């Protein structure tokens, strides 16, 4: 029986063969390495996006009936891991700031119509999280979970730590949303720095297109938290005497 090796388990040879640069043979080594860096970073982002969407989907499932005895804690674990992975995605974009503009400009024409806006996993993530006008699957599942526990999201926010794991889930949802927003804002800043107001490779309007797609998920939860904040401020003695 053949012993499973690290390389076999991770399919390292296959993984390391997936970076196919498009720059012509006449391009300098620096340009080829810059494009290789560009490809590796985006491939890594897609791998992390796969884990993020899997974990958020699992979190939504755990908050959807029928419920098991550990589902609330499982949902919390998935959300907390996602918040950390969104930090990793943010750092991937920060790393791309080390892509020299002169090299990017040289290999960018060979991307043809390929664009990050075409990422199917990003669109899936957006559906899970929802936007400022419409809640996604994740928040709707959280609402069902609170109803199962005999309270509303409003009451969870009002009770704070007294709501136990439901309050920790609410906190983690906001951590995920903030991580998502931070990642997209950093990407917007990077694109603006690199190409200014030029159109995107996929035919989009570039920076303007990206800016319109940046949303801060869980608007209802934020509004409820704001109401709790206002109520707590009003309860302070200094507020009542003014």
UniProtKB/TrEMBL annotation:
Name of the protein this chain belongs to: Tryptophan 2,3-dioxygenase
Identify a single GO molecular function assigned to this protein.
metal ion binding
Q: Where is the signal peptide?
A: none
Q: Which SUPFAM superfamilies match?
A: Indolic compounds 2,3-dioxygenase-like (SSF140959)
Single biological process term from Gene Ontology: L-tryptophan catabolic process to acetyl-CoA
Give the superkingdom in one word: Bacteria
């Amino acid at each position: 029986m053949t012993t499973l090796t690290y390389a076999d388990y991770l399919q390292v040879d296959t993984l390391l063969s997936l970076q196919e640069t498009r720059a012509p043979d006449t391009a300098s080594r620096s340009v080829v390495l810059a494009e290789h860096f560009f490809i590796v970073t985006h491939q890594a982002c897609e791998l992390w996006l796969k884990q993020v969407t899997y974990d958020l989907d699992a979190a939504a499932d755990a908050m959807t009936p029928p419920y098991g005895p550990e589902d609330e804690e499982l949902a919390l674990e998935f959300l907390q891991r996602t918040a950390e992975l969104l930090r990793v995605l943010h750092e991937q974009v920060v790393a791309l700031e080390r892509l020299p503009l002169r090299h990017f400009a040289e290999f960018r024409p060979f991307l043809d119509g390929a664009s990050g806006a075409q990422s199917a996993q990003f669109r899936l993530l957006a559906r899970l999280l929802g936007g400022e006008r419409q809640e996604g699957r994740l928040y709707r599942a959280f609402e069902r979970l609170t109803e199962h526990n005999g309270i509303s999201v409003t009451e969870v926010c009002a009770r704070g730590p007294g709501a136990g794991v439901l309050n920790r889930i609410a906190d983690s949802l906001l951590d995920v949303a903030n991580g998502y927003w931070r990642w997209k804002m950093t990407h917007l800043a990077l694109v603006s720095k690199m190409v200014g107001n030029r159109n995107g490779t996929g035919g989009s309007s570039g920076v303007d297109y990206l800016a319109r797609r940046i949303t801060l998920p869980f608007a209802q939860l934020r509004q409820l938290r704001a109401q709790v904040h206002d109520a707590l401020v009003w309860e302070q003695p200094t507020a009542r005497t003014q």
